[in-house]
Structure formats: C-alpha cells, structure tokens
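INSTRUCTION: Work out how this chain folds

Fields: amino acid sequence; protein backbone structure tokens

Chain under study, with its fold:
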Amino acid sequence: MILVTGGAGYIGAHMVKLLGERGRETVTLDNLSRGHREMVTSGKFIEGDLSDRGLLEDIFRGCDIGAVFHFAADSLVGESEENPRRYYRNNVANGIQLLDVMLEAGVKRIVFSSSAAVYGEPGRIPLAENHPVIPVNVYGTTKLILEDMMKQYAEVYGLRFVSLRYFNAAGADPDGLIGEDHDPETHLIPLILDAALGRRKDITVFGEDYDTPDGTCIRDYIHVTDLAEAHLLALDYLEKGNGKSAVYNLGNGRGFSVLEVIQAAERVTGQTIPFRTGGRRRGDPARLVASSEGISREWGWKPRYADLDVIVETAWKWHRRRFGRA
C-alpha cells in the first residue's frame, strides 16, 4: 500500500487518481488546510496532520505501507517570507517526523515533492540538476533542507529516495474530474481562466521590460498528469531496488511568456482576457526553464501534454466544471 501525504491537494490528488487507475492501493493523509476531500478519487482517506506522531504510527502499523509519496507542504513563496515559522514547522519539522516514523516502521522508500525554488536565481538556462542550489526564499530553503536530510538518512539508515524538483505545475486531469483550486489562488493559468469566466475583473502582468521577446517573464509549464507519471516511474525505480537515490528536474523543457499564456487562453476559451501591467515583483527572474534531460535519458520520461494550448484546455475544462459553467 502507498501512503500519499497531501493527497487531497492539487498535485497529490492527481497522483492518487493515477495510482488508483493503475491498480495500486493508497492511503491519503491530508489535513485539508489547502486540499479538498472531494479531490481524492480512490483509496482510503484519513484526515490528519503530519504533526500527529501517534496517527502516523497507527497508519504505518495498520496499513502495511510499502512506500511514501510526500506532497504535504506549504508552498507560497510570499507567505513563506512573511511567516517562516509556519514553513519550517510544516515543511521541515513535520517532514523529519515522517522520515523518522517511516524508518521505525521499516519503510525506506519515498518519492519527495521538491521544487525548482531550491536553485534560487538561475545562473544559466535551462536549469539542470547540477546547477548550484542557493534558494532565495524560505519555501525553497525548506525543500532543500529536507533533500539534504534524506541524503544523510540514505547514507546512515539506508533510506532510498527520489526527489523531483518541479517547475510550474499546470493543467488538470484530462477527464475533467479534478484540477486546481487554491485559496488564495496565485498561479497564472487559473487566474487567467478566472478572468475568462468573469470571476475576476482582470489579471496583472508583473513587468513588461524583461529581456525576453515580448518583455514578460518566461516560465516552464508542466502538465500535472505528466508530473504524476514521473512519480510512478520513481516508485518503480525504488521498488526494483536497483541504483542509488536520485534527484531529477521535472519540466516541459520549453518556456512560455506571460503574454503567450494569455494568448493561449484566449484561443482556448474564445474570450478576451483583460489584463493590466504592474511593476516587477522582487526576485522574479526573466527566464526559468528546466532541463529534464536526466530523467528523460535515464528513465525515458517525456511529457505527453507539452503543448501550451493542450495544457490550458485541460485546465479550462476543469475550471468550467468546478465553477458552474461547464
């Protein structure tokens, strides 16, 4: 059985759905502070928090857990700077507790949801796994701390892990059953789709004077189902028992500017997306694009939903269903 922490959240829920479709038994643990119970489409669900050691011990004792997908974390960069205690407590302290309970139960396989935020300001593009890791915010720091801990636990206690560093997760389940629903919403594509539905007046484009073809920031968008597929490959790798622990980037390998994303949304929705231009946000690099050559070369992973219009189309299908305009 697979334990999925944070499995009621955006990416975790897509993981649970895919595992169920592949015939794997799951236990989802989520405190529902950011997730939604209705997003968990298969397996057993337990509402609870990683800070509850007794609950964790009961799960490992009673559910025959063989491996863990660890998604549970706070992930808002701005919030992490304003409330670092929350991020160190939830992302680091609770992560340590999870690792300790795993080891005590004899479970030594974990796939970790990490982030491109560990790299900090990009020194070269595309970003590869050997790029220096110098996070510039608390969120990225908490992810790197847990990565470093897992490396040490691997050396000393025999833990085996795969850490997957995401770039911009986007899109929704192609079936339209689950998707992205944050409160507050900070991701570009759902904000744009909110404008298309009239749920917001407009969106703000932060900066139009970057050194990019149209002056707006360029980001790497990877479909959430492609992320989940990569996690399955990681689980297979760990279950085969061969090889060392590993760290891989997960990205599309292509960058799209903010204006290109708006234009894609206009094509998909048939709506004009109203936007206004604001000033640059502190710490926003002009370009952030991944190199996923490592996981592609070694495991054969390639994104199936790489086209921007397809990514937006799946998100649009979900967005209309979620907010009553299907």
Remarks:
- The radius of gyration is 19 Å.
